Amino acid sequence: MKRYINTLQTFWKTAIATQLEYQVNFIIELLAMIGTFIGSIFILSLFFNHGNNLGGWTWEEALIVQGIYTFLDGITNSWLRPNLREIVNYVREGTLDFVLLKPINSQFWVSCRTISPSGIPEIFLGLSVVIWSLNTIGNSINFSIILFFSCMLLASSIILYSIWFLIAATTIWFVKTWNATEVLRALLASGRYPINAYPPTFRFIFIFIIPITFLTTVPSEIILEKSNGYMLYIGIFVALIFFILSKKFWEFALSHYTSASS
Predict the structure, then answer these.
(1) pLDDT at 4 over 90
(2) Mind listing the pLDDT tens digit for each residue in 106-165?
(3) How far apart are CA 179 and CA 168, in angstroms?
(4) Percent above pLDDT 90 for the chain
(5) Would you tell me how many other CB atoms lie within 10 Å of the CB of residue 168?
(6) Which of 101, 85, 60, 93 is nearest to 254 (CA)?
(7) How far is CA 14 from the centre of its chain?
(8) Of 111, 160, 189, 197, which residue is least crowded by CB atoms under 10 Å?
(9) What is the pTM of this model?
């Protein structure tokens, strides 16, 4: 474990130093992130023009869902996209051979090799929105609620990673899979609204087929104390299942990988 932590520190120090060489790009991406967030808030506000709730959620409660979505989008931009889109290049250029020869888990390597600082402010922005909304609502938050919320947020991040990685791993067979990830990202954007705002058919899909409800709505319900504790355990179980599935699928994909030297 210590070796992996030291490796991760080396990876990310190098990546951040490289990214900060292009400071103008960082500023442009930061401004784009702020513009996207403002646009999301504006669209959300349109649903409250003629009513006081959205699927039974008030404006402040819906903002918590938006804040968690922004947090996860920051994780996507800072961690998932920079790493998983490179798997295509590893396969196409044959450099995946060198990854597999390294004395370290290949899934860890391809998943954590780099990081983009431009997504980090989005993570803090999302958490800030959650904190501001809670203060506005006036809910008293104790240590146990914060602990449950943190565990569910971790589970949501694992589910998000696993879904992205499952699609990225298909690069072993299909080189051009990045369009599929863009479709996935558009689908995951539905998580910026409470699950109760959708028709029953979409709720079924977002719970049992693509677990979008566990990404944003369930963490929001936990911190608002609108959900029973069993949803946390279900969320953790779903995260474990998806993570194990991503690991097994990666092993299966590698068994079909034809190296550049063979």
Answers:
(1) no
(2) 999 999 999 988 888 999 999 999 999 999 988 777 888 999 999 999 999 999 999 999
(3) 11
(4) 42
(5) 26
(6) 101
(7) 23
(8) 189
(9) 0.91
Q: For residues 222 and 219, give the distance between their C-alpha atoms in angstroms, rounded to a whole number.
A: 5
Could you tell me which residues are beta bridge partners of residue 177? none
Distance CA 198, CA 61 (A): 16
Residue bearing tokens 């409660």: 61
Q: Which residue has the tokens 């196409």?
A: 92
Pick the closest to residue 250 from 125, 107, 142 (CA basis): 107
Q: Give the pLDDT score at 79.
A: 92
**CA neighbours within 13 Å on the CB side: how many for 92?**
10
What letter represents residue 76's amino acid?
T
Rounded distance between C-alpha atoms, residue 156 and residue 143, angstroms: 20
**What letter represents residue 84's amino acid?**
L
Per the model's pLDDT, the better-predicted residue between 49 and 34 turns out to be 34
Q: Which residue has the tokens 């070796």?
A: 3
Give the per-residue pLDDT at 216: 94
Q: Would you say the C-alpha torsion 128, 129, 135, 140 has a positive or negative sign?
A: negative
The amino acid that residue 174 corresponds to is F
Q: What are phi and psi of 194, to 5 degrees?
A: -60, 145
How many C-beta atoms surround the C-beta of residue 238 within 10 A?
20
All residues at 6 or more sequence positions from 148 whose CB lies less than 8 Å from its CB, including other chains: 222, 223, 229, 232
67 within 8 A of 151, measured Cβ to Cβ: no
Instruction: Report the run of H or E that residue 163 belongs to, with start and end.
Output: helix 143-169
Q: Distance (Å, rounded) from C-alpha 104 to C-alpha 178? A: 26
In the prediction, which pLDDT does 110 show? 94
Give the separation between CA 159 and CA 83, rounded to whole angstroms: 16
